[in-house]
Design a protein that fits this description.
Blueprint lengths: L2 E5 L4 H13 L4 E4 L6 H9 L6 E4 L2 E4 L6 H7 L15
Parallel strand pairs: 1-2
Antiparallel strand pairs: 1-3, 3-4
């Protein structure tokens, strides 16, 4: 399953989502809602809302989330081993 991340590049929550995914060693594809044609419409279609960040993995959706929600979501989907679910958190 591929991880699709929908962001606004100026959004601090979106920047943090990218940092957390990188720290977890997760591969993902970023969709810039303001530059990629159709990205905003696609996010609205799968999530039912317009807030970023939002993530789609197959039929599973994590919409308008905080960074602490990423690892549990990916672990639940089997994309992250439970022992890898706590990256070093730099403030």
């Amino acid at each position: 399953m591929s991880v699709e991340l929908y962001v606004k590049t100026w959004c601090p929550w979106c920047v943090k989502a990218v940092e957390v995914l990188d720290a977890l060693g997760c591969s993902y594809r970023v969709h810039d809602l303001e530059k990629e044609p159709g990205a905003a419409a696609a996010m609205l279609a799968f999530s039912g809302q317009t807030r970023a960040p939002s993530m789609q993995v197959g039929e599973h959706v994590l919409a308008d989330f905080g960074p602490e929600e990423i690892a549990p979501f990916l672990t639940k989907l089997g994309l992250l081993a439970p022992h890898n679910a706590r990256p070093n958190e730099a403030s």
